[in-house]
Amino acid sequence: MASDIISTGSSFSTFEKLEKILVGLSGGVDSSVCIQILKDQGFDVSAAVIRFSPAHDAAVEAARKVAAQLNVFCYEIDAAEAFEQAVVQPFCESYCKGETPNPCVVCNPLVKFRLLAEKADELGIRLIATGHYARVEEQDDGSYRVAVPESAARDQSYMLYRLDQDILSRLVLPLGEFEKQDIRDTARELGLASADAPDSQEICFIPEGGYADFIRARGLESPAGHFIGPDGQDLGPHKGIAHYTIGQRKGLNIALGQPVFVKAIQPDGNILLGWAGEEFYRAVTLRDVATPTGKPLEDGEYLAKIRSAASPAPCLAKNQPDGSVALVFPTPVRAPAPGQSAVLYRAGCVEGGGFIDSILP
Which of 209, 258, 260, 339 has a Cα-to-Cα distance from 348 of 20 to 30 A? Predict the structure, then answer.
Protein backbone atom coordinates (compact mmCIF):
# COMPACT_ATOMS: atom_id res chain seq x y z
CA MET A 1 0.00 0.00 0.00
CA ALA A 2 2.79 2.42 0.84
CA SER A 3 4.44 1.89 -2.52
CA ASP A 4 1.12 2.49 -4.27
CA ILE A 5 0.61 5.84 -2.57
CA ILE A 6 4.10 7.22 -2.80
CA SER A 7 4.39 6.34 -6.49
CA THR A 8 1.41 8.50 -7.41
CA GLY A 9 2.57 11.73 -8.99
CA SER A 10 -0.32 13.20 -10.93
CA SER A 11 -0.97 15.89 -8.32
CA PHE A 12 2.53 17.27 -8.59
CA SER A 13 3.11 17.54 -12.32
CA THR A 14 2.99 21.34 -12.28
CA PHE A 15 5.82 21.63 -9.76
CA GLU A 16 9.53 21.17 -10.25
CA LYS A 17 10.93 18.14 -8.51
CA LEU A 18 13.59 18.87 -5.90
CA GLU A 19 11.83 22.15 -5.15
CA LYS A 20 11.74 23.10 -1.49
CA ILE A 21 8.42 22.79 0.30
CA LEU A 22 7.33 23.50 3.89
CA VAL A 23 4.76 21.12 5.37
CA GLY A 24 2.49 22.03 8.25
CA LEU A 25 3.02 19.10 10.62
CA SER A 26 0.49 18.46 13.37
CA GLY A 27 1.95 15.21 14.66
CA GLY A 28 -1.05 13.29 13.36
CA VAL A 29 -1.11 10.58 10.72
CA ASP A 30 -2.28 12.74 7.80
CA SER A 31 0.44 15.37 7.84
CA SER A 32 3.04 12.68 8.60
CA VAL A 33 2.22 10.68 5.47
CA CYS A 34 1.95 13.94 3.53
CA ILE A 35 5.66 14.49 4.23
CA GLN A 36 6.58 11.00 3.05
CA ILE A 37 4.56 11.37 -0.16
CA LEU A 38 6.32 14.64 -0.97
CA LYS A 39 9.74 13.23 -0.19
CA ASP A 40 9.15 10.29 -2.49
CA GLN A 41 8.01 12.65 -5.23
CA GLY A 42 11.40 14.34 -5.06
CA PHE A 43 10.64 17.45 -3.05
CA ASP A 44 13.12 18.95 -0.59
CA VAL A 45 10.87 18.82 2.47
CA SER A 46 11.01 20.75 5.73
CA ALA A 47 8.28 20.78 8.37
CA ALA A 48 6.79 23.32 10.73
CA VAL A 49 4.62 22.64 13.75
CA ILE A 50 2.39 25.40 15.07
CA ARG A 51 2.00 25.84 18.81
CA PHE A 52 -1.43 27.39 19.18
CA SER A 53 -1.55 27.28 22.99
CA PRO A 54 -0.08 25.35 25.95
CA ALA A 55 -2.80 22.76 25.31
CA HIS A 56 -0.94 21.86 22.11
CA ASP A 57 2.39 21.00 23.75
CA ALA A 58 1.77 17.26 23.32
CA ALA A 59 1.05 17.76 19.62
CA VAL A 60 4.26 19.76 19.22
CA GLU A 61 6.26 16.94 20.80
CA ALA A 62 4.51 14.36 18.61
CA ALA A 63 5.34 16.39 15.52
CA ARG A 64 9.00 16.59 16.47
CA LYS A 65 9.10 12.82 16.97
CA VAL A 66 7.56 12.15 13.55
CA ALA A 67 9.89 14.66 11.88
CA ALA A 68 12.88 12.85 13.36
CA GLN A 69 11.55 9.53 12.05
CA LEU A 70 11.10 11.01 8.59
CA ASN A 71 14.49 12.74 8.72
CA VAL A 72 13.17 16.24 8.09
CA PHE A 73 13.94 19.38 10.06
CA CYS A 74 10.97 20.68 12.03
CA TYR A 75 10.57 24.37 12.84
CA GLU A 76 8.27 25.55 15.61
CA ILE A 77 5.92 28.49 15.08
CA ASP A 78 4.49 30.24 18.13
CA ALA A 79 0.91 31.21 17.30
CA ALA A 80 -0.46 31.60 20.82
CA GLU A 81 -1.16 35.34 20.66
CA ALA A 82 -2.55 35.31 17.12
CA PHE A 83 -4.70 32.26 17.89
CA GLU A 84 -6.12 33.83 21.02
CA GLN A 85 -7.01 37.09 19.32
CA ALA A 86 -8.24 35.80 15.96
CA VAL A 87 -9.89 32.52 16.96
CA VAL A 88 -10.48 31.79 20.64
CA GLN A 89 -11.86 35.11 21.83
CA PRO A 90 -14.21 35.57 18.85
CA PHE A 91 -15.38 31.97 19.29
CA CYS A 92 -16.34 32.59 22.92
CA GLU A 93 -18.05 35.88 22.10
CA SER A 94 -19.99 34.25 19.28
CA TYR A 95 -21.26 31.46 21.52
CA CYS A 96 -22.35 34.00 24.12
CA LYS A 97 -24.45 35.70 21.41
CA GLY A 98 -26.30 32.47 20.69
CA GLU A 99 -24.35 31.61 17.54
CA THR A 100 -22.73 28.31 16.58
CA PRO A 101 -19.26 29.24 15.31
CA ASN A 102 -16.79 26.99 13.52
CA PRO A 103 -13.32 28.20 14.53
CA CYS A 104 -11.43 26.18 11.91
CA VAL A 105 -12.73 28.26 9.00
CA VAL A 106 -11.36 31.36 10.76
CA CYS A 107 -8.10 29.82 11.97
CA ASN A 108 -7.06 28.50 8.57
CA PRO A 109 -6.76 31.84 6.72
CA LEU A 110 -5.93 34.09 9.68
CA VAL A 111 -3.52 31.91 11.63
CA LYS A 112 -2.54 28.46 10.36
CA PHE A 113 -1.91 29.08 6.66
CA ARG A 114 -0.82 32.70 7.14
CA LEU A 115 1.90 31.79 9.63
CA LEU A 116 2.97 28.75 7.61
CA ALA A 117 3.35 30.95 4.52
CA GLU A 118 5.23 33.61 6.49
CA LYS A 119 7.64 30.97 7.79
CA ALA A 120 8.15 29.67 4.26
CA ASP A 121 8.89 33.20 3.05
CA GLU A 122 11.40 33.65 5.86
CA LEU A 123 13.15 30.45 4.75
CA GLY A 124 13.03 31.32 1.05
CA ILE A 125 10.59 28.48 0.31
CA ARG A 126 7.85 29.01 -2.28
CA LEU A 127 5.57 26.01 -1.69
CA ILE A 128 3.61 24.99 1.39
CA ALA A 129 1.61 21.82 2.05
CA THR A 130 -0.75 20.35 4.63
CA GLY A 131 -2.48 17.02 5.23
CA HIS A 132 -5.99 18.25 4.47
CA TYR A 133 -8.29 16.05 2.40
CA ALA A 134 -8.94 18.45 -0.45
CA ARG A 135 -7.34 19.46 -3.74
CA VAL A 136 -6.22 22.69 -5.40
CA GLU A 137 -7.24 23.17 -9.03
CA GLU A 138 -5.97 25.80 -11.45
CA GLN A 139 -8.72 27.41 -13.52
CA ASP A 140 -8.65 28.45 -17.17
CA ASP A 141 -8.03 32.07 -16.15
CA GLY A 142 -4.98 31.11 -14.08
CA SER A 143 -6.68 31.48 -10.70
CA TYR A 144 -6.93 28.66 -8.16
CA ARG A 145 -9.76 26.99 -6.29
CA VAL A 146 -10.04 24.55 -3.41
CA ALA A 147 -11.67 21.41 -4.83
CA VAL A 148 -13.30 18.40 -3.22
CA PRO A 149 -11.11 15.31 -2.72
CA GLU A 150 -11.57 11.83 -4.11
CA SER A 151 -12.88 10.70 -0.71
CA ALA A 152 -16.20 12.43 -0.12
CA ALA A 153 -16.32 10.99 3.40
CA ARG A 154 -13.16 12.91 4.34
CA ASP A 155 -13.85 16.14 2.44
CA GLN A 156 -12.23 19.10 4.22
CA SER A 157 -12.72 21.65 1.45
CA TYR A 158 -15.38 23.36 3.59
CA MET A 159 -12.74 24.25 6.17
CA LEU A 160 -10.54 25.91 3.54
CA TYR A 161 -13.11 28.10 1.81
CA ARG A 162 -11.66 31.41 3.04
CA LEU A 163 -8.16 30.83 1.63
CA ASP A 164 -7.17 33.42 -0.96
CA GLN A 165 -5.03 33.35 -4.10
CA ASP A 166 -1.84 34.20 -2.22
CA ILE A 167 -2.17 30.90 -0.36
CA LEU A 168 -3.84 28.75 -3.01
CA SER A 169 -1.24 29.59 -5.67
CA ARG A 170 1.51 28.03 -3.55
CA LEU A 171 -0.45 25.28 -1.76
CA VAL A 172 0.01 21.53 -2.33
CA LEU A 173 -2.54 19.09 -0.87
CA PRO A 174 -1.18 15.58 -1.52
CA LEU A 175 -3.94 13.68 0.32
CA GLY A 176 -6.75 14.84 -1.95
CA GLU A 177 -6.53 11.67 -4.03
CA PHE A 178 -6.49 9.13 -1.22
CA GLU A 179 -8.72 7.42 1.32
CA LYS A 180 -8.05 7.83 5.03
CA GLN A 181 -7.53 4.11 5.55
CA ASP A 182 -4.88 4.07 2.82
CA ILE A 183 -3.03 6.85 4.62
CA ARG A 184 -3.21 5.09 7.97
CA ASP A 185 -2.08 1.78 6.43
CA THR A 186 0.85 3.57 4.82
CA ALA A 187 1.85 5.11 8.14
CA ARG A 188 1.85 1.66 9.73
CA GLU A 189 3.97 0.21 6.93
CA LEU A 190 6.43 3.06 7.37
CA GLY A 191 6.49 2.48 11.13
CA LEU A 192 5.52 6.05 11.95
CA ALA A 193 4.74 6.97 15.54
CA SER A 194 1.60 8.71 14.31
CA ALA A 195 0.17 5.62 12.60
CA ASP A 196 -2.45 4.96 15.26
CA ALA A 197 -2.91 8.51 16.47
CA PRO A 198 -6.61 9.34 16.88
CA ASP A 199 -8.27 11.68 14.42
CA SER A 200 -8.13 15.28 15.54
CA GLN A 201 -11.15 16.52 17.45
CA GLU A 202 -13.46 19.05 15.85
CA ILE A 203 -12.42 22.00 18.04
CA CYS A 204 -8.83 21.54 19.14
CA PHE A 205 -8.79 23.99 22.05
CA ILE A 206 -11.95 22.82 23.86
CA PRO A 207 -11.17 20.34 26.67
CA GLU A 208 -13.43 17.48 27.67
CA GLY A 209 -15.51 19.72 29.92
CA GLY A 210 -17.22 21.26 26.92
CA TYR A 211 -17.93 24.72 25.52
CA ALA A 212 -19.77 26.16 28.51
CA ASP A 213 -17.06 25.29 31.04
CA PHE A 214 -14.34 26.60 28.72
CA ILE A 215 -16.17 29.90 28.20
CA ARG A 216 -16.87 30.29 31.92
CA ALA A 217 -13.22 29.62 32.78
CA ARG A 218 -12.29 32.59 30.62
CA GLY A 219 -14.45 34.93 32.66
CA LEU A 220 -17.39 34.97 30.27
CA GLU A 221 -20.91 33.91 31.10
CA SER A 222 -23.38 32.83 28.46
CA PRO A 223 -26.73 34.55 29.04
CA ALA A 224 -29.26 32.69 31.15
CA GLY A 225 -32.89 32.66 30.17
CA HIS A 226 -35.94 30.51 29.65
CA PHE A 227 -37.15 27.90 27.22
CA ILE A 228 -40.05 29.25 25.20
CA GLY A 229 -42.29 26.51 23.82
CA PRO A 230 -43.66 26.14 20.28
CA ASP A 231 -46.89 27.83 21.33
CA GLY A 232 -45.15 30.68 23.15
CA GLN A 233 -45.42 29.20 26.62
CA ASP A 234 -42.66 29.82 29.20
CA LEU A 235 -41.21 26.40 30.06
CA GLY A 236 -38.78 27.55 32.73
CA PRO A 237 -35.06 28.33 32.91
CA HIS A 238 -32.27 26.60 31.01
CA LYS A 239 -28.56 26.18 31.84
CA GLY A 240 -27.25 29.05 29.66
CA ILE A 241 -27.24 29.41 25.90
CA ALA A 242 -23.69 28.06 25.48
CA HIS A 243 -25.06 24.62 26.36
CA TYR A 244 -27.31 24.46 23.28
CA THR A 245 -27.10 24.55 19.50
CA ILE A 246 -29.62 25.12 16.72
CA GLY A 247 -31.39 21.89 15.77
CA GLN A 248 -30.59 20.16 19.07
CA ARG A 249 -33.17 17.65 20.28
CA LYS A 250 -31.40 15.62 22.95
CA GLY A 251 -30.62 16.86 26.44
CA LEU A 252 -33.35 19.50 26.59
CA ASN A 253 -35.31 17.72 29.35
CA ILE A 254 -38.56 19.15 28.03
CA ALA A 255 -41.68 16.94 28.04
CA LEU A 256 -44.49 18.24 25.85
CA GLY A 257 -45.92 14.98 24.58
CA GLN A 258 -43.88 15.03 21.38
CA PRO A 259 -40.25 15.84 20.53
CA VAL A 260 -39.06 19.43 20.27
CA PHE A 261 -35.86 21.02 18.96
CA VAL A 262 -33.92 24.25 19.47
CA LYS A 263 -35.37 26.57 16.84
CA ALA A 264 -33.62 29.81 17.77
CA ILE A 265 -31.23 31.11 20.42
CA GLN A 266 -31.82 34.73 21.29
CA PRO A 267 -28.99 36.99 22.49
CA ASP A 268 -31.10 38.02 25.49
CA GLY A 269 -30.94 34.42 26.70
CA ASN A 270 -34.25 32.87 25.73
CA ILE A 271 -34.29 29.68 23.67
CA LEU A 272 -37.18 29.18 21.28
CA LEU A 273 -38.32 25.60 20.75
CA GLY A 274 -40.15 24.14 17.77
CA TRP A 275 -41.86 20.84 17.10
CA ALA A 276 -39.56 18.16 15.69
CA GLY A 277 -40.02 18.00 11.94
CA GLU A 278 -40.32 21.75 11.60
CA GLU A 279 -36.58 22.44 11.61
CA PHE A 280 -36.32 22.90 7.84
CA TYR A 281 -35.74 26.27 6.20
CA ARG A 282 -35.81 27.59 2.65
CA ALA A 283 -33.47 30.57 2.93
CA VAL A 284 -30.51 32.02 4.82
CA THR A 285 -28.54 35.24 4.55
CA LEU A 286 -24.74 35.33 4.69
CA ARG A 287 -22.42 38.02 6.04
CA ASP A 288 -18.68 38.50 5.51
CA VAL A 289 -18.79 36.60 2.23
CA ALA A 290 -15.38 35.54 0.89
CA THR A 291 -14.41 34.24 -2.54
CA PRO A 292 -11.13 32.66 -3.68
CA THR A 293 -10.39 35.58 -6.01
CA GLY A 294 -11.58 38.38 -3.74
CA LYS A 295 -14.17 39.38 -6.33
CA PRO A 296 -17.88 39.59 -5.45
CA LEU A 297 -19.73 36.30 -5.52
CA GLU A 298 -21.64 35.79 -8.75
CA ASP A 299 -25.41 35.50 -8.48
CA GLY A 300 -26.67 32.13 -9.65
CA GLU A 301 -27.02 28.45 -8.89
CA TYR A 302 -24.65 26.61 -6.57
CA LEU A 303 -24.42 23.60 -4.31
CA ALA A 304 -24.19 24.74 -0.69
CA LYS A 305 -22.96 23.04 2.46
CA ILE A 306 -24.45 24.70 5.55
CA ARG A 307 -22.14 22.81 7.93
CA SER A 308 -18.99 20.76 7.48
CA ALA A 309 -20.75 17.38 7.61
CA ALA A 310 -23.81 18.41 5.58
CA SER A 311 -24.55 17.07 2.12
CA PRO A 312 -24.37 19.73 -0.62
CA ALA A 313 -27.81 21.16 -1.39
CA PRO A 314 -28.85 23.07 -4.53
CA CYS A 315 -29.46 26.76 -3.94
CA LEU A 316 -29.81 30.09 -5.70
CA ALA A 317 -27.48 32.86 -4.46
CA LYS A 318 -28.29 36.54 -4.86
CA ASN A 319 -26.31 39.54 -3.66
CA GLN A 320 -28.27 41.99 -1.50
CA PRO A 321 -27.99 45.82 -1.35
CA ASP A 322 -26.56 45.68 2.19
CA GLY A 323 -23.61 43.52 1.09
CA SER A 324 -25.05 40.25 2.34
CA VAL A 325 -25.87 37.27 0.13
CA ALA A 326 -29.20 35.45 0.25
CA LEU A 327 -29.36 31.71 -0.41
CA VAL A 328 -32.70 30.19 -1.39
CA PHE A 329 -33.05 26.40 -1.30
CA PRO A 330 -35.67 24.74 -3.53
CA THR A 331 -35.64 21.85 -1.05
CA PRO A 332 -35.53 23.12 2.55
CA VAL A 333 -32.38 22.37 4.56
CA ARG A 334 -32.30 21.17 8.15
CA ALA A 335 -31.34 23.49 11.00
CA PRO A 336 -29.04 26.10 9.46
CA ALA A 337 -27.37 27.85 12.39
CA PRO A 338 -26.29 31.50 12.68
CA GLY A 339 -22.51 31.64 13.06
CA GLN A 340 -21.89 28.56 10.96
CA SER A 341 -20.55 28.90 7.44
CA ALA A 342 -22.37 28.15 4.21
CA VAL A 343 -19.88 27.18 1.50
CA LEU A 344 -20.79 27.33 -2.19
CA TYR A 345 -19.56 24.92 -4.87
CA ARG A 346 -19.63 24.64 -8.65
CA ALA A 347 -18.19 21.67 -10.53
CA GLY A 348 -16.59 20.40 -7.34
CA CYS A 349 -14.74 23.65 -6.64
CA VAL A 350 -15.25 26.16 -3.83
CA GLU A 351 -16.53 29.44 -5.25
CA GLY A 352 -17.10 31.25 -1.96
CA GLY A 353 -19.00 31.27 1.29
CA GLY A 354 -19.90 33.28 4.33
CA PHE A 355 -21.25 33.16 7.86
CA ILE A 356 -24.96 32.47 8.28
CA ASP A 357 -26.52 35.61 9.71
CA SER A 358 -30.24 34.88 9.61
CA ILE A 359 -32.53 32.02 8.67
CA LEU A 360 -35.90 32.29 6.97
CA PRO A 361 -38.73 29.74 6.77
Answer: 339
Count other Cβ atoms within 10 Å, centred on residue 14: 8
End-to-end CA distance of the chain: 49
Tell me how crowded residue 91 is: count the other CB atoms within 10 A of its CB: 23
Nearest to 332 by CA among 288, 263, 279, 281: 281
Percentage of the chain modeled with pLDDT above 90: 73
**Domain residue ranges in the chain:** 13-189, 223-275, 280-360
For 189-219, how does the pLDDT look when each residue is reduced to its tens digit (9 = 90+)?
A: 988 888 777 777 667 888 766 777 888 888 7
Catalytic residues: 107, 204
List the CATH code of the domain at 13-189. Answer: 3.40.50.620
CATH superfamily, domain at 280-360: Translation factors (2.40.30.10)
